[in-house]
Amino acid sequence: MNTTASVRMGSIDALRGLTVAAMLLVNNPGDWGHVYAPLLHADWHGFTPTDLIFPLFLFIAGVSMAWSLVPRAVDPLLRPALGRTLLQRALRILLAGALLHVLAWWLFDLPAYRVWGVLQRIALCVAAVGLLAIHARARTHWLVLGALLLGYTALLLGADTLAPWHNPVSRVDTALFAPFLYKYDAITRLGHDPEGLLSSAGAIATTLLGLIAGSWLRAGRRGALAGLALVGLGAGLLLAAVLPFNKNLWTPSYVLWTGGLSILALLLAHQLIDHWHWPAIGRRFGVNAIAAYLGSSVMALVLIASGAWAACFAGLLSLMPAAPKLASLSCALGFVAFWWCVVWLLDRRRVYFKI
Q1: Residue 4: helix, strand or coil by DSSP?
Q2: Which of the 8 DSSP states describes residue 74?
Q3: How many CB atoms lie within 10 A of CB 196?
Q4: Where are the beta strands (DSSP E) in 128-287?
Q5: Cβ pair 185, 65 in contact under 8 A
Q6: What is the pLDDT of residues 56-101, one digit of tens each?
Q7: Alpha-carbon span 16 to 282, nearest angstrom
Q8: Contact indicator for 260, 232 with CB cutoff of 8 Å
Q9: Of 51, 26, 42, 90, residue with least CA distance to 202
């Protein structure tokens, strides 16, 4: 399907929304000591269903640019304005993430402020890939994707170790940003941040793959997209033999594997919603995605700091003392349901917060 105008796809909004709902679910268990294994990230090397959520969100961000930016960037006169708008939005997302971490630092009296985070990574990926969407051709997109994957693979394979704390990604982030990291040991002077600078090379590659996939979807190349998904899955498995799946390092094998799964999810959503007209479940989260994530994060921090979150889990646990993991999951599901009601009301009143 070709278009010369920006078009809003129900499948893209729905898939983005389901991804945000999944983020809320896995980020907010009643108690971190009682969580079902599939709802946890792999400790280091490995892959769980939860490890697909963030790359799927970034992939969908790239797909969205293929529909919102690329058609308008055909006109060279519009490119400067598109670029300014893009960078301003990325800056607002970055500032939102920075302020969220200020709140966490203040509420929990943390030893150091954390520079990097989920919203900061989203901002970086949106800015980098958005500029490519506006100013570069499709061939350049492929060249940049290849350079990111090959260069990052060479760096990681050339390292003496990929162990926690001692791998090159953690060492670079620690040298540049310590102690302002997710984890930092002042005694050993070792640190790590799963959303740090160097591993953003893999995250940008994931977003760029979404841009390419979205462009192919606009062109109606669904068969080619299915083939690309299979190539990504196969290449990811082969590369994982020497460079394991690792979300913390966002390894190239992880990019390829999650990219293949994301393409399949996109094709399935496109077929079910855009062609078979199934209900776009998740769309309401999708049209208020960043606002819902930011608002729910603020609410979660306040509930945890006030003790209300622990009280909620304790109340549920008293109802099901033999099933603490189920009580923990019920707490998370209630949180998602609350925010589902919030975004439903916002959508019903046609209120859409754009950061």
Answers
A1: coil
A2: T
A3: 26
A4: 183-185, 190-192
A5: no
A6: 999 999 999 999 999 999 999 999 999 999 999 999 999 999 999 9
A7: 8
A8: yes
A9: 51
Number of C-beta neighbours around residue 66 at 10 A: 23
- In whole angstroms, what is the distance from residue 315 CA to residue 321 CA? 10
> Is pLDDT above 70 for 3?
no
223 is written with which tokens?
A: 């068969």
Q: Tokens 């589902």, residue?
A: 340
CA pair distance 352, 17, nearest whole angstrom: 13
CB 328 within 8 A of CB 29: yes
The answer to whether the Cα torsion of 257, 64, 205, 46 is positive or negative is negative
* φ, ψ (nearest 5 deg) of residue 190: -110, 140
Strands (E), the chain: 183-185, 190-192
Cβ proximity of 243 and 251 under 8 Å: yes
The pair of structure tokens assigned to 11 is 């499948």
Among residues 108, 121, 106, the alpha carbon closest in space to that of 173 is found at: 121
Q: Against a cut of 0.85, is the pTM above it? A: yes
Q: Convert the pLDDT of each residue in 143-191 to its tens digit.
A: 999 999 999 999 999 999 999 999 999 999 999 999 999 999 999 999 9
Q: How far apart are CA 97 and CA 71, in angstroms?
A: 29
